[in-house]
Amino acid sequence: MRYEFVVRDAVSEDAAAELPELSSCSFPTGGTSLFGSVRDESDVLTLLARLTHLGLVVVAVRPLPD
After folding, report:
1. Is 0.90 topped by the overall pTM?
2. Fold entry, domain 2-64
């Protein structure tokens, strides 16, 4: 199962280093897509908590096709 987390702003190198299981893609208009594999809903909730703890504002979460 794969998920995408879209955050409002750019993700710093330090924040990205705290999320080694996620890949990222910055949008030219601002914001960043973080995406990667999760095992279950618990992983999704844990990642949301970690993103928030890093000061990132999550604007969208969605499952991705495998």
Report:
1. yes
2. Alpha-Beta Plaits (3.30.70)
